[in-house]
Amino acid sequence: MLIKALDSDWAVLSENIGLWMPTEIINQEHDDKPEGEEDDEEILPGRPVPPECHAELHTDYDGAAVRWGLTHHNESAADCCQACLDQAKRAKPGEMKCNIWVYCPSETGCYSPDIYQHKNQECWLKYAEKPKLNFKDRYSES
After folding, report:
1. Cβ contact 101:123 at 8 Å
2. Looking at per-residue confidence, does 96 or 60 come out higher?
């Protein structure tokens, strides 16, 4: 039966049953986003990040790891920031208090100029006496 179906003249069969299939499909993309509105990739998933978190997209700061991000994942940037705030409150005298947090919101991972391939939802809690910018902006994909 399959051989008969494959050998049939589909154009005639389609006409007989009233089926019409276009020979060319044109897919036109429409951009109906209001001017000045952020691109989706610039929006952090999850609940909004509070202003006291000082969130900066595509940014990494140097600092000693207070909590290692490879094994510390959070659902959102807001949760990562809250983890930093909570750690700073709980730190005992003489322990480093989190004052830098770095979160990877991208499902495909995030770039950082270190030896690790950072994965989605990694949350690095760091401390630096004087936080120093390590990386800013997007990493070239070429």
Report:
1. yes
2. 96
CA distance 100 to 64: 9
Q: How many angstroms separate the CA atoms of 123 and 65, rounded?
A: 11
* pLDDT 10s digits, 11-29: 777 777 777 666 677 766 6
Distance CA 57, CA 136 (A): 8
* Token pair listed for 59: 């940014």
Phi-psi region of 3 (alpha: psi -120 to 50; beta: other; left: phi over 0): alpha
Q: What mean pLDDT do residues 133-140 have?
A: 70
Q: Which residues contact 120 (CB under 8 A, 6 or more apart)?
A: 104, 105, 106, 107, 108, 109, 110
- Residue partners of 65: CB distance under 8 A and separation at least 6: 124, 125, 126
In this predicted model, what pLDDT tens digit does every residue of 69-126 receive, in sequence order? 999 999 999 999 999 999 999 999 999 999 999 999 988 888 877 788 889 999 999 9
As a whole number of angstroms, the distance between CA 100 and CA 98 comes to: 6
